[in-house]
Specification:
Layout: H1 2-16, H2 18-47, H3 54-92, H4 100-118
Helix pairs in contact: 2-3
Amino acid sequence: MFRQIKSAIIWSYIWRFRSLLAKILIAIASIVVLEFVYKDIVEYLHLTNNVKYLGIVLIIKWILILAILGYIGFFVWRLKTRKTNKKKANTIGDTKKMSKKEIRELAQKIIHSKQNKLT
């Protein structure tokens, strides 16, 4: 029973964040491919005795890795800001779910808070 509940929770989170997980998996795969390409380039440069270019290749490798990690970090940050914006929108007032009396009281609170800020 516990195993089924745990599995359902895990799969619901996977389904909810499927686009972010796909982007993370693609980023990890691209970093792995980048590492293989880097090793091949380093081996080629050693074979052709062009060791002077190893520093440039290393810098390019790390720039690409940091760009990929920044890309994923941007999507995680954007996901967090969306969640906080949703929470703020729900607390300010979902007027379709509120009665007229609740809307009137909320409007009065907002008016009073604006007047208090002005004085």
